[in-house]
Write a structure and sequence with these properties.
By secondary structure, the chain is of the alpha/beta class. About 45% of the residues lie in helices and about 15% in strands. It is built from nine helices and seven strands, in the order E-H-E-H-E-H-E-H-E-H-H-E-H-H-H-E. The termini are far apart. The chain binds NADP nicotinamide-adenine-dinucleotide phosphate. The site of NADP nicotinamide-adenine-dinucleotide phosphate has 32 residues, from helix 1, strand 2, helix 4 and helix 7.
Length: about 250
């Protein structure tokens, strides 16, 4: 008998790593809440791709910076599919490369609001909904950090790197806090992955350009990150919690 289909909410699931994760989950026959911030068309394309892969998905607009939006994306996913087994805390942004001394306050605040506050809101909601001590069934949280947490991104975006350092620490602490509550908490740390995020940081060719300098000699594909995320969501990783998995071509 094939294992029970899981229901997973993916923040920032419309494009990039989130989209690839949704599609791989779909290939397992899972149900996916595809959250997005603004690009409804991309989210609908992801929903269609999940269905084509063999799963079920719905698109859910919502800004992870807003507590009410976060609560609503959980409500909508659970209402559509009747349960929740996993959450991928994936929504994240960068900004154009700059030294910290030259960064505007608004930019730093936006990075921290989305990448740290948003991730904390989503993780808190996941703990409330899935925690066995609160009537949930347990589950898995996968946080999407970055190699920037270890490398620090000097001269490029130390604000972003610091926000991802916070994600690593959140992963370690929350994994211990929720271990007795039936929830595993892990993170992936992607390196240079070919997605639109680099264009939003003003350098569309960044992953390809710098990817050749990695030990594996190339940038990664979002599917290569998604494979690890799906493993961490699945029962195959049942003894893994508090892990930070680097997916960076050896960088
Ligand atoms: P991407 O292609 O730019 O996609 C980002 C996704 O996040 C989009 O779906 C976007 O929604 C959503 N999003 C942005 N702000 C949001 C908000 N406030 N609320 C809800 N959703 C929001 O980025 P990506 O490269 O796939 O990145 C995904 C994650 O991987 C991020 O956390 C990023 O830091 C991390 N990461 C990426 C790389 C890389 O090289 N690509 C490396 C290390 C870590 P819309 O589609 O509506 O705009």
């Amino acid at each position: 008998m094939s294992p029970k289909a899981k229901t997973v909410l993916i923040t920032g699931g419309g494009r990039g790593i989130g989209r690839s994760t949704a599609i791989l989950c779909g290939a397992r026959g899972w149900n996916i809440g595809v959250n997005y911030a603004a690009d409804a068309k991309a989210a609908e394309e992801t929903v269609a791709a999940v269905a084509e892969a063999g799963g079920n998905a719905i698109a859910i607009a919502g800004d992870v910076r807003e507590e009410a939006d976060v609560a609503a994306m959980f409500d909508v996913t659970i209402a559509a599919f009747g349960m929740l087994d996993g959450v991928v805390n994936n929504a994240g942004i960068v900004a154009p490369g700059s030294r910290l001394a030259d960064m505007a306050t608004d930019r730093i605040r936006r990075i921290v609001d989305v990448n740290v506050m948003g991730a904390l809101f989503v993780a808190r909601e996941a703990a409330q909904r899935m925690g066995q001590s609160r009537g949930g069934q347990g589950g898995a949280i996968v946080n999407v950090s970055s190699m920037a947490a270890r490398l620090g991104s000097p001269g490029e975006y130390v604000d972003y790197a610091a926000s991802k350092g916070a994600i690593d620490t959140l992963t370690i602490g929350l994994s211990k806090e929720l271990a007795g509550d039936g929830i595993r908490v892990n993170a992936v740390r992607p390196g240079l992955i070919e997605t639109d995020i680099h264009a939003s940081g003003g350098a569309p060719d960044r992953a390809r350009r710098l990817g050749v300098q990695t030990p594996l000699g190339r940038a990664g594909k979002p599917q290569e990150v998604a494979e690890a995320i799906v493993w961490l969501l699945s029962d195959a990783s049942s003894y893994t919690t508090g892990a930070l998995i680097d997916i960076s071509g050896g960088r």
